[in-house]
Amino acid sequence: MQNGNKLHIALLFGGNSSEHDVSKRSAHNIYDAMDKNKYDVSLFMFTKDGILLGHEASKKIFDGVPEDDIIAEEYPKIDMSDPLAPIKAFQEVKDIDLFYPVIHGNLGEDGTIQGLFKLLRKPYIGSGVMASAVSFDKDMTKRILNQAGVRNTKYILVTPENRDTMTWDYISAKLGNSVFIKPANQGSSVGIHKANDAASYNEGLEDALRYDFKILIEETIEQPQEIEISILGNEIPRASKLGAVRVPASDTFYDYQNKFVDASGVVFELPVVLSDKLTKEITKMAIDAFVALGLKGLTRMDFLVDKNDVPYLGEPNTLPGFTNISLYPQMWEVSGISYSELIDQIIEYGLAEFERNNKIHYDFQALGDERVGQKKYNTDVVD
C-alpha cells in the first residue's frame, strides 16, 4: 500500500471502442467520488488506437488538454516495434493495489483487460475473464440465459456465412414484421437498427456487420417499458430498487444519441413504481442471470416489459456507465448507498474476489521420459 493505509488504485479509462468518450465521462465521476483519504489514484488512458498512456499524459487529458495534442507528444516516445508497446506504461504500476477499469465495450468488458490483470497477478474490480467475455457477447449471453430459464427475446443469429439465406421473408416469418438488428459484441446501442421491411432490414444489417461478424436479429416488444436494475456483490449478490427510462415517443428506442449526446427529452424514474409481483420477478431474474453468467462485483441488468407486464432480460452490462445520466449509481443512491460508499464496496468486492481465487491450488507433476504406444497405420483405407 502507498502512503500508509491508503490503497493505490489504477483507474483505467478510454479504449479503442465506440464508447471511448463515454468511458472518459464515467472515469471522471468515479474519480470525483473516490474518498481521497482512503485512496491514492493513478490514471491510465487507452487511446483510440489501444495504446496505454502513463499517468502524467493521462492526467493531462483527464484535466481537459485535447487528447490529440497529448497523443502527438507521446506517440513519438513509444517504440512501436516493441511487442509490448501497447501496454508498456504498465511499468509504472509496481505498487498498484487494485485496478479499477472503466473501459466500456471492446477491450474493457470483453475479458481482454481482465486477462491482463490476471497475468499481472493484481486485484481488479468486476467480473473475471470468462464471465466478462460471455456477457459481452449477446449471442452467448442468450444461450446461457435460455439454459438457466431466464426469459429473454427470441432471436436469429446472422453471420457473413449464412447471410444470403437469412432473407427478410425468412426473418419476418420467424420473428414478425418488426425486428431489432444488433451486433453481438457492441454496447451503448452502437450499430443497432429497427427494421420493418426488406429495405430497412438489409440496410441495418449492412451497417451492423461493420461492427461485428455476429448479428442478432431480435423480435420486437411493442411499446415496452425500459426497466433497469443494479446488482452488487460476489457469491451472494444483492439488487437495488428498479429504475425506468422513458424516451420520447418520437424516438425509435433508447439509442446512443439520447443516452449520451442529448438526454434532455429522456425521463428517468427513480425508483419506478411497479406491482410487487413484477418487481419481485425482475429482481429474481436479474439475480438468477448474474449467478448463471458467473458475474462478480457489479452489473446493470436491462429489461423490457411488455404491455402484459411480462419482463424480458435484455442484456447485462458488466462495467456499467457512471456518467451523469447513468442509472447504475443512481439506483443504488435511491436504495440507500451513496456514490462514495458504492465505490468503496465495489473495491472491497474486487479485493475479496482476488483473495478467494488465491485459495485455488494448482498441482504440477513432472512427466519424466516420454513413453508412447505403438502407432498402427491403416494403409488400405480408401479416401
From TrEMBL:
NCBIfam families annotated for this entry? Answer: D_ala_D_alaTIGR (TIGR01205), PRK01966.1-4 (NF002528)
PROSITE patterns, per the entry: ATP_GRASP, DALA_DALA_LIGASE_1, DALA_DALA_LIGASE_2
Q: Which GO terms describe its biological process?
A: cell wall organization; peptidoglycan biosynthetic process; regulation of cell shape
Q: What positions does the entry give for Mg(2+) 1 binding?
A: 302, 315
Task: Name its species.
Answer: Paucilactobacillus nenjiangensis
* Name by which UniProt lists this protein: D-alanine--D-alanine ligase
Give any Pfam family that matches. Answer: Dala_Dala_lig_C
Family statement:
Belongs to the D-alanine--D-alanine ligase family.
Could you tell me the EC number(s) of this protein? 6.3.2.4
Q: Quote the catalytic activity from the record.
A: 2 D-alanine + ATP = D-alanyl-D-alanine + ADP + phosphate + H(+)
Q: Which HAMAP family match?
A: Dala_Dala_lig
Cellular component, GO annotation: cytosol
Q: Which InterPro entries match?
A: ATP-grasp (IPR011761), ATP_grasp_subdomain_1 (IPR013815), D-Ala_lig_Van_CS (IPR000291), D_ala_D_ala (IPR005905), Dala_Dala_lig_C (IPR011095), Dala_Dala_lig_N (IPR011127), PreATP-grasp_dom_sf (IPR016185)
Question: Which positions are annotated as binding Mg(2+) 2?
Answer: 315, 317
Q: What does this protein do?
A: Cell wall formation.
Pathway, per Swiss-Prot/TrEMBL?
Cell wall biogenesis; peptidoglycan biosynthesis
Q: Which UniProt keywords apply?
A: ATP-binding, Cell shape, Cell wall biogenesis/degradation, Cytoplasm, Ligase, Magnesium, Manganese, Metal-binding, Nucleotide-binding, Peptidoglycan synthesis
One Gene Ontology MF term: D-alanine-D-alanine ligase activity
SUPFAM superfamilies from the entry?
Glutathione synthetase ATP-binding domain-like, PreATP-grasp domain
Gene that encodes the chain: ddl
Cofactor(s) this protein cannot do without: Mg(2+); Mn(2+)
Q: Where is the ATP-grasp domain?
A: 142-348
Copy out the cofactor comment: Binds 2 magnesium or manganese ions per subunit.
Q: What is its main location?
A: cytoplasm
Subcellular location per UniProt equals: Cytoplasm
Cite the active-site annotation.
Answer: 19, 188, 326
Give the source's domain of life in one word.
Bacteria
